Every structure is written in C-alpha cells, then in structure tokens.
Amino acid sequence: MKPTQDFTKGMSLALAQADRAMASGEPPFGVVILDSAGQTVAATMDEVVHRRDMSAHAEVLAVQQACQRVGPDLSGCTLFTTCEPCPMCYTAAWLARIGTLVYATTMEEVHQILGDQQRELRMPVSELNRWSDTPMALHAGVMRDDALQRFEDYQR
pTM for the full model? Predict the structure, then answer.
C-alpha cells in the first residue's frame, strides 16, 4: 500500500485540519476529501470533545459535508486522513462510494502513543476493505512522521 502518486497536497490539507483540531482541544484527526479534479469538497476535524458525541469523528463529518455539497455518491473522490479510519469511519466512506483512501498513520501507532486515551476498535482498514464487495484503493504512510508528531504533541 505504498503511494503510487503524489498525495502530499491532500495530506497537507488534512494535517492543517489536525492542527485546527489540536488548537481547539481535540485530538489531531484531520480529514479532507478532494474530488477527481483535486478540488476540496470537505475539510473537517474531530469534534468529539466539542460536540460531546463519540460519533463526531473527522471522517464521518467529512463524508456528511461532502454528501451535502455534491450528493450521496462520492465516486471519484479521495479521502485523506491523518490516521487510519476506524470501522465506523471506513464504513461511512465506503457507503458514500469514495474510491481512494489515503492515510498517514495506523490506528495501532496512534494507540501506542495515546493508549486508552483514544478508544477505538483497532481493526486494520485493509481487513475491512478485504470484506467489502467494492474495495477502495488504499494508500498508507503518506506524511506519516508529520502525523505521528502531532499525536505525540497532543499527548504532552
């Protein structure tokens, strides 16, 4: 699952959302969805703390935002996220037909940094993808060190 193209623009935008999240007291989960032309259709961050809602993950909010803007079929879009999506977030993206998923770090790596502070089902997205009838193209490790640094900074 190595990147086959340059995904740094999208991931840089997702990392900027992670910075916003940290500035507001949220963990550094940031997401951007780009359409096939490279235009931003959604840019979100975790809002779990602010909303007091454990389902307010950045990926779910981004899918909602993108669907409100362009409709429920996000075929041709790419979702960039600072961390491998949990099963809930993967499912939201998959249901919306997102074709490509790019993530910086794994949930296991984040758990090693944050421990029980970040409660997630740590099922690898590759396993979820394997069980879907229309798998997404997965690209892992894009700007990984930049994302991990944010999680380490958040931990402090």
Answer: 0.93
